[in-house]
């Protein structure tokens, strides 16, 4: 499955009844809850990475990607915008890109 396919599946499930779809339920609970779940999953992925638990890292990474796309859906930010940003950043090296940023 690609991220674009996952985004489409999330869009379909977001339109379902919250009683029938975890995705719809999560979005119905609001951005704070969706973002909280993303944070929880990211923390679990970090723990799996640091402890060297590869199978758990794979599972938690899937959760992070899913919850990130749910947050993007709730914020009405299409994945294509994120991918365009990544594409723009790969025009130059990461170190050069960071050096070019202005600090507030």
Q: What does this molecule look like?
A:
This protein has 6 helices and no strands. It is mainly alpha-helical. It has one domain: MazG-like (Helix Hairpins). Helix 1 crosses helix 4 (54-74) and helix 3 packs antiparallel against helix 4 (54-74). The relative contact order is 0.12. The mean pLDDT is 94.
Shape verdict: globular
Work out the helix count.
6
Mean pLDDT: 94
CATH H-level superfamily: MazG-like
The strand count comes to 0
Can you tell me the CATH class? Mainly Alpha
Fraction of residues in H or I helices: over 70%
- CATH architect. name: Orthogonal Bundle
Question: Biggest sheet: strands, sense, closure?
Answer: none
Low-confidence stretches: none
CATH fold descriptor: Helix Hairpins
Intertermini distance: 39 Å
Order of helices and strands: HHHHHH
- Total discrete domains: 1
What is the rounded Rg?
16 Å
Brief rundown of the structure:
With 104 residues, the protein is mainly α. The chain is built from six helices and no strands.
How would you describe this structure in keywords?
104 residues, Helix Hairpins, mainly alpha
What topology does this entry show?
Elements: H1 3-14, H2 22-28, H3 31-51, H4 54-74, H5 79-89, H6 94-100
Helix pairs in contact: 1-4, 3-4
